[in-house]
Hints:
- With 312 residues, this protein is of the alpha+beta class.
- The chain folds into 2 domains: 5-117 and 292-310, 3-Layer(aba) Sandwich (Aminopeptidase); 122-290, Gcn5-related N-acetyltransferase (GNAT) (Aminopeptidase, 3-Layer(aba) Sandwich).
- The protein is built from 12 helices and 15 strands.
- It has helices at 12-22, 31-36, 38-41, 74-87, 98-107, 127-132, 139-151, 164-177, 184-198, 244-259, 275-282, 306-310; strands at residues 5-6, 44-48, 51-58, 61-65, 68-69, 92-96, 112-116, 122-126, 154-158, 206-212, 215-224, 229-237, 265-267, 288-290, 293-297.
- Strands 1, 2, 3, 4, 5, 6, 7 and 15 form an 8-stranded mixed β-sheet that branches. It has a 7-stranded mixed β-sheet with strand order 9-10-11-12-13-8-14.
Amino acid sequence: MIEFKPVEIEDKKWVDPLLKAADLSGSHYNFTNLFAWVNTFQYRVAQVDNFLVVKGNLNGTQYYFYPAGQGDPQPVLEAMAEDAAKAGVQFVLAGLSKENITELNHLFPEKFEYSEARDSFDYVYLLEDLAALTGKKYRGKRNHVNYFMKNYNWSFEEISPENLAECWEMNIEWCKINKCMYDVQLASEFCAVRRCFDYFDQLELEGGLLRADGKVVAFTIGDKLNLDTYDTHIEKAFSDIKGAYQTINQQFAKFIQQKHPEIIFVNREEDMGQAGLRKAKLSYHPVRMEEKYWGKYVSERNYATACSRMRA
Length: 312
């Protein structure tokens, strides 16, 4: 039996080494995301052998992430199937990569059916592209950045204990403008951002802010995802400040280059099915999409014996 527990800040010390060993590319394999969104998705974690196992819930559907670690995942997956069986629910895996699917089909042939989770695809960019904005395809972005720099007395700062509160005040104002409390997704995001601010140091987060005439008009927060990829969790700017979004994006990319010379890619996470956000993320020309799929165990209907049948 797997003994799951809610994600707490103290779990970072044992979760991070397992994620580092796995070196995965999906943004859901990041402690900050598990911790920040724990209340929205009811994330629960456990260590099984040398693997991190995560259980969540979306609109009443219990699901699991593919185990993250090193070694043979088969007994871990069998334990996860047993956990689902004891809960009387279908064994569902979320955030599967194509590599996960290949491994599942090898370990449990014809036991799962798969479906694309397009709204959860991560957008992955070359860091150099975001920092330089060179070429015809980024002309519009450069124009916005140039406008901002020309028309405002601006500055970029690394987020620190001295200016973190200003960023939070800016986030509150942003949410009032965008009516976060009347939008389920934005309200959930507000809570996730709050947890990032409350535990900024413990999460080992990094960030940058943009000032225009002394006022914070944009900020962004992230941390490393794996050996060569950085994960941008949050990016906020006032939409009425022309060029603020484009400038904070570029300036933070330059910050990453300076602080983490080993980084090649930036994962800017998913669009959650929002048309405007999808358009904005595509406009930065991702070098690839980190594809994700649902996997549902369908070979057997008697979930009480699912684990033993999976071994067959």
